[in-house]
Amino acid sequence: MDAKALRRTRGCALALAILILASNLGCSTPVGVARVDPRVVYRTLTSNVLSTGEPSNPTRNVLFRRGLYERFESKPPSALRRLHAAVASGRGGRDDIFALAELSFVYASHTGKRRWFLASMVYAYAFLFPGDDRHPPDPLDPRLRLACDIYNRGITEGFASHDGKLVELRGGSFALPFGVMDVAFDETQLRWANRRLVQLVPVADLEVKGMWARYRWPGIGAPLAASTEPFEAGNGSEEFVAPWVKVPITAVLRIAAPREALVSGRVRAVLEVDDATSPKTVDIDGHAVPLEIESTAALAYTLAESPVWQQEIKGFLQGAGVMDEKSQLVALSPYQPGRIPVVLVHGTASSAGRWAQMLNELGNDPRIHDRYQFWLFSYDTGNPVLYSAMRLRQTLQNAVERLQRDGRDPALERMVVIGHSQGGLLAKLTSIDSGDRFWRSTYRIPLDRLVMPQRTRALIRNMTFIEPLPFVRRVIFIATPQHGSYFAGNPISHWIARFVTLPLDLVRVGTDLLTFNREALALTAVGQPSTSVDNMTPGSGFIQTLSAIPVAPGVAAHSIIAVRPGGPVEQGDDGVVEYQSAHLEGTESELVVVDSHSCQANPHTVEEVRRILLEHVEAN
To answer: What is the tens place of the pLDDT at every residue in 213-237?
Structure first.
């Protein structure tokens, strides 16, 4: 054997030996599997442009099948044009349309080009609502939800302002990568009661803080939160809407014959706006399609931008000027006839913002949302309880009178008032008949025998001679010091109360009493009017008198009492109010929750309020 043949033989033997050795060592094959954590596999199968910025597995499959994977990596517009041409020529189907939606969004996200965001939205709509006799996606197809989200985001990004912070809904002609989209839009849709919707913010960009539940009703359309501004100074029900409210709305772009539009390159669309706070549907191609709604984000945005937080301490120390009459009673939506008002009254050194968790829970329950409307009452919490309660009664009376001008609404006559802490005392003072008991607890001379200006006499009578409001049919007390608060009774609380400034009309009462009746009141203690801290001190004349007066017949009352963990309930307290003080005889129900004083957000508190409101709906 010559040398050349020998080398060839040795080479073959070496190759065979390497092959056998590799086989014996278990060398990996070109195709195989490896056992990993199932979560890794799930992330691979479900990742998409909205979660990772990269195309989903179904879209990558289309790129491979069409031989466009490398081209999309190097020249995205070229790959997208080829894929669009396949669809326009009839060679592409549903899979290709979905891939176009996601890949257009991928490219738009990298470049910021508006026309590609709009294209992603058009493709997604064509995938979701093919029209004619074509079948829509299977409801179990995971691409269906992703296509909805791409469509929704395509609207917010395609109609984004120059700085990207707002959404500017408008009509006109918009360039697309494959043609033009003509959008019709009636701007009168940006009207909410007597106000104009402005500053539209995409809630997909908002991270919610301070809420332990975020409600999102999935569907079609871009969820937005809108600020409002008045068209003109008005009167009536719109006055109840807080100017700082953010209105949850949903923008939907309807596209006529979307599959045909992809072929012709001329897209005809209509932009619609729906103010939506609870689940509702729109009709598309004869099908009821749910709207996308982000109510929690809009509520959190409302409270984040509101002035209520600055009113808490200031509203305790400053007895006037912190809240004017128009801001005392506000609603988060225009008055809705047929829905029962629920009035929420906060406690001492607190604000309407503390009801956020309860509003979020109850407002997202269709059984509650469709039957009730929520009003928030704010007041300067350092003032005497009788004075604040008078303001509450007057405000509610004025509201009902205004709302009844255009006709009787029976729902207004079934009002529910819910109060936390001192707010619970105010709630009780809407539902009792006191006669002259509050006056006699301080003065021994009848009011009519004293000399004073008419305005002073009227103020005293309105404060101390109380009749139940005929339209309040149910009250709920939450952590309410029915017999006083030991926290209010401590020396530090009374020292702090010395810095409370009272309203001028209230200070004038004491001055008028002494000026015109010095001899008649010589044996009666008359001096500086008391504060709410004085009123809520156990043993005070006010709290003893109020606790002895029952809720009026025909008014249902309920108690929710907080007790910190440890020890018997009857000997417990919430850090501010003892159980024995919060307990009130004669209530229809009493629930004890394990929590501290600020228990409005406690899930058991919320569930009890929900139960009571549902019971109230069924009651005659």
So the answer is: 888 889 999 999 999 888 776 544 4
- If asked whether residues 476 and 604 sit together in one domain, one would say yes
Question: 460: buried, middle or exposed (CB in 10 Å: 19+, 13-18, 0-12)?
Answer: buried
Rounded distance between C-alpha atoms, residue 194 and residue 197, angstroms? 10
Q: Does 8 map to a domain? A: no
> Over 80: is that where the pLDDT of 206 sits?
yes
Query: What is the reported pLDDT for 533?
Result: 85
Specify the DSSP element, H or E, that contains 343. Answer: strand 340-345
pLDDT of residue 236: 43
For 432-555, strand residue ranges (E) read: 472-478
Residue-wise burial string across 135-156, b where 16 or more C-beta atoms lie within 10 A, e elsewhere: ebbeeeeebbebbbbbbbbbbb
70 or 509, greater pLDDT = 70
Q: What is the pLDDT of residues 244-258, one digit of tens each?
A: 888 899 999 999 999
Q: What tokens does 57 get?
A: 């597995």
Q: Count CB neighbours of 191 within 10 A.
A: 14
Would 320 be classed as within a structural domain? yes
Q: At what angle do helices 295-304 and 356-363 cross, to 10 degrees?
A: 160
* Cβ atoms of 275 and 224 closer than 8 Å: no
CA distance 486 to 492: 11
pLDDT digits (tens, 9 = 90+) for 14-24: 555 555 545 55
344 and 488 share one domain: yes
**C-alpha pair distances (Å), 196 with each of 155, 300, 403:** 21, 21, 22
Indicate whether 351 pLDDT > 90.
Answer: no
Contact 561, 592 (CB under 8 A): yes
Instruction: Answer whether 114's CB lies under 8 Å from 181's CB.
Output: no
Q: Look at the alpha carbons of 388, 391, 397, 398 in this order and tell me if their dihedral is positive or negative.
A: negative
Question: What confidence tens digit (pLDDT) does each residue in 524-559 have?
Answer: 455 557 888 889 999 898 999 999 999 999 999 999
Contacts of 259 (CB under 8 A, 6+ apart): 126, 130, 131, 132, 134
To which H or E segment does residue 259 belong? helix 258-264
- Region of 484 (left: φ > 0; alpha: ψ -120 to 50; beta: rest) is left
3-state secondary structure 516-532: HHCCCCCCCCCCCCCCH
Q: 93 phi and psi, to 5 degrees?
A: -120, -155
The answer on 141 and 206 residing in a single domain is: yes
pLDDT, position 6: 53
CA distance 204 to 206: 6
Extended strands (E) in 231-324: 247-255, 266-275, 281-284, 287-290
Q: What are phi and psi of 611, to 5 degrees?
A: -60, -45
Range of the domain at 210: 46-298
Domain presence at residue 161: yes
pLDDT tens-digit profile of 274-332? 987 677 889 998 889 999 988 888 888 888 877 776 776 666 556 555 455 666 898 88
* 48 close to 55: Cβ distance less than 8 angstroms: yes
d(CA 217, CA 215): 7
Q: Is residue 265 part of a domain?
A: yes
From 298, 323, 338, the end of a domain falls on 298
Give the residue with greater pLDDT, 277 vs 447.
447
Q: What is the Cα–Cα distance from 156 to 150, expressed in whole angstroms?
A: 10
Reported residue count of the chain is 620
Picking from 426, 430, 420, 419, the residue whose alpha carbon sits closest to that of residue 473 is 430
Q: Which two tokens stand for residue 374?
A: 């929520």
Q: Angle at which helices 454-464 and 504-517 pack, to 10 degrees? A: 110
